[in-house]
Hints:
Distance between the termini: 32 Å
Helix content: over 70%
Mean pLDDT: 86
Shape: globular
Amino acid sequence: xxxxxxxxxxxxxxxxxxxxxxxxxxxxxxxxxxxxxxxxxxxxxxxxxxxxxxxxxxxxxxxxxxxxxxxxxxxxxxxxxxxxxxxxxxxxxxxxxxxxxxxxxxxxxxxxxxxxxxxxxxxxxxxxxxxxxxxxxxxxxxxxxxxxxxxxxxxxxxxxxxxxxxxxxxxxxxxxxxxxxxxxxxxxxxxxxxxxxxxxxxxxxxxxxxxxxxxxxxxxxxxxxxxxxxxxxxxxxxxxxxxxxxxxxxxxxxxxxxxxxxxxxxxxxxxxxxxxxxxxxxxxxxxxxxxxxxxxxxxxxxxxxxxxxxxxxxxxxxxxxxxxxxxxxxxxxxxxxxxxxxxxxxxxxxxxxxxxxxxxxxxxxxxxxxxxxxxxxxxxxxxxxxxxxxxxxxxxxxxxxxxxxxxxxxxxxxxxxxxxxxxxxxxxxxxxxxxxxxxxxxxxxxxxxxxxxxxxxxxxxxxxxxxxxxxxxxxxxxxxxxxxxxxxxxxxxxxxxxxxxxxxxxxxxxxxxx
Length: 514
């Protein structure tokens, strides 16, 4: 049963990520074409400013889940009730603080966009978007954490998939029928808040929660150990748009948000690969099998390295042509930003390279030992972005992100090597150098070919397939030549079992037919 739940959760999580990528590509496209880049930028800017309230709950989810796992396993109703009451008390306080924060934004935020939008236009949109955030904190997050800790994350995923699809379809229909953006976002919000209300209903129906249990604030003290890691991730994902809002304009915010729609979608899908292997590494580490952990980690890290090089190289070549097609017809902002697109793709690739090392640090629980790295990364990202944004605009923001990511990758590799796993640094360095050369050669050849502008989605798909086949072949051949034994390890670890299983399924089907 445990295995089934895990499989359901992984499959629905992947389905949810794919749904989010599609939804996040569809809506901005129609909003940009119908209402303009400035409106799309305003929506993204408001969403990002509202997300800052999440700083108040940084680290809570992971801590609460870790204690709920044990309580749910023991079926200790009293302890579960205490944890849920404590968590709910905390999130209700956050929801009240959110109301104060919204009032502050109503006063301050319109000043940043006063030259582009009427004050009431901005305030009405801000309040509508904020309703969903309030409902999540007041009703949704406590029950969501409990359901996920009980290995029923697939319920959350399915509910989100349904509400995202329905809200998107309804909002697109309303766009075509010329409703105001406020009315469209209001209807979308009403549909989306069904999710937190359903989680709350599901918790009340399926779990016995004694609301008379006292709040246990000791549960929340551990949250600060992981704060630095969460804050660096938060700054990476949430500050760039705020900096652009203050120092640039809504058109630039729209350009940034459209490019990062692509990179964030790819990053989230690749993140499933890393998160899915966490339990395995955690089990090996907990068993004290150091040599096995070293071997399995190096195999996975190399596998992840190859995937990231492949996916982000193709993305780097095709992201700007895709964006140009995606916003074709929009003339109120310049979306042809190849340099920015390249830098942001490289930055996100570095983030994905780092994931296996960050994951290992989280598994071991070395939050305190590595929190300083998180603060430095956050500082580098923010300070460099602020220094460069006025002169270089989007490119300045991207450079800040890139340098922050690069620093964190280097220190994460160094920490894992020095304190956790004695990885072969020289061999790892060779892998990076060889594959960077492969990427450089491939991209140079493609640029020398002087391929004409891609004018249709069909042409884009055609070049995506051609580039993928050529580059994948080049990547595999080169790595087999230079790292034959490591490539064999990847094959035997991840592919041989899968191939043999497919063969067994085919033989079973043939027997059934006979």
